[in-house]
Design brief:
The protein is an alpha/beta fold and 220 residues long. The protein is 18% helix and 35% strand. The protein is built from five helices and 15 strands. The longest helix has 12 residues. The N and C termini lie far apart (49 Å).
C-alpha cells in the first residue's frame, strides 16, 4: 500500500521551529511534516515507524529520511539543509514525498572523511549515539554529517556499504559496523632495510635506527 504527496520544501533555518528543535535535527536525516499527513497515515492503517523518500521533482534525485515531528505548517516539509543541498533542492521548491518501508539492516561499512574523527576521545560512542538518534535510516553511497556537541565540530562520513539492501533501517536492530580508513589517511611509506657490513662480510639488519612498533589505524 503506497502513500505519496507533494509538499513545499524549506530548511530548518527558514522555519519558526524552536531553537532547541533546530539544533537537535540540523545534522540528521529527520524531517518535519504537517499534522495532516500523520492523520492520513493513521486513517490508512500504515505501519509505524514512518520513513519517507524525499525526491527532487526535476532530477529525480532522492534520499530516505525519518520523521522528527508532524508539526510543520500545512503543505510544508522542513528538511535539514545538507540534505536539500545534496539533492539540489532550493528553498520553496516542490518535492515529492513517498512513504518507504526499508529493510532491517544487518551490516554497514563507514568511511570518515578525516582522520581527526578517529582521533576523538571516543569516536565509536559518538557515532553510535548520533546514528541511533539522528539517522534511523541510511542509504548506501550517501554521506552523513555528525556533530560533536562538545566542540561543535561537524564530521562527514560516507556510507560505502549496507546490507542486506541499499537502504536499511538501523533502529531496533542488531547491526555490524565496519570502518574503512579515512579519506585523508596516508599509509606510512615502507622503510627500506638498512644493512651494515660486519667484519665477517655477512650483511646484518641494523634495528637500532628504527625503534618502536607499528599500530593499526584505530588501535589504542
Amino acid at each position: 500500500m503506497s502513500y505519496t504527496t507533494q509538499l513545499i520544501c524549506f530548511s530548518y533555518g527558514c522555519s519558526s521551529q524552536p531553537e532547541d528543535v533546530i539544533k537537535q535535527v540540523k545534522y540528521s536525516n529527520k524531517i518535519l511534516l504537517p499534522p495532516s499527513i500523520l492523520h492520513e497515515l493513521i486513517q490508512g492503517n500504515y505501519e509505524m515507524p514512518y520513513f519517507f523518500k524525499i525526491e527532487n521533482i526535476e532530477t529525480k534525485f532522492a534520499q530516505y529520511c525519518g520523521v522528527q515531528e508532524f508539526s510543520s505548517p500545512p503543505g510544508v516539509a522542513h528538511i535539514p539543509y545538507h540534505i536539500m543541498s545534496g539533492l539540489g533542492i532550493g528553498e520553496g521548491d516542490n518535492i515529492n514525498i513517498d512513504l518507504a518501508t526499508p529493510t532491517d539492516g544487518s551490516y554497514v561499512k563507514l568511511q570518515p572523511h578525516t582522520i581527526k574523527f578517529c582521533e576523538l576521545e571516543d569516536p565509536k560512542a559518538l557515532l553510535e549515539k548520533v546514528l541511533s538518534s539522528n539517522y534511523p535510516i541510511i542509504t548506501e553511497g550517501h554521506t552523513i554529517a555528525i556533530e560533536d556537541k562538545n566542540t561543535e565540530k561537524v564530521y562527514h562520513i560516507d556510507i560505502i556499504k549496507t546490507e542486506p539492501a541499499p537502504v536499511i533501517k538501523i533502529i531496533d536492530v542488531n547491526i555490524n559496523v565496519d570502518f574503512a580508513p579515512p579519506l585523508d589517511y596516508v599509509p606510512p611509506k615502507p622503510v627500506e632495510n638498512n644493512f651494515v657490513d660486519t667484519s665477517n662480510n655477512v650483511l646484518e639488519y641494523d634495528t637500532e635506527r628504527f625503534p618502536g612498533k607499528g599500530h593499526r589505524l584505530g588501535e589504542k
